[in-house]
């Protein structure tokens, strides 16, 4: 199995087998659409470390001030290719970001109690 297929299957599994099920991927859209102040509402929700990977062909480019105003932002990465389906389009870059964020010297290392990195 290729790395690309493995990444796609992993993302599908995260959403499908989580407690929220397939609805897990749409919860953030509900939160944003039902909020009077998007930045304030989102920043109040994120108490855990947050990482953001920016891809130039994303369907909707979020203004950087929104990203900076969101809770506990500990990691950001800019990429020269990829878009909304980055896990399929450029999985190596996305996996690299996850390793940088959660790896032993990453800003979110140890965020899960009892777990020792990836």
TrEMBL record:
GO terms for molecular function: epoxide hydrolase activity. Keywords: Hydrolase, Signal. GO terms for biological process: epoxide metabolic process. It comes from Collybiopsis luxurians FD-317 M1. Residues 1-20 form the signal peptide. This is Uncharacterized protein. It comes from the Eukaryota. Belongs to the peptidase S33 family. Gene3D superfamilies: alpha/beta hydrolase (3.40.50.1820).
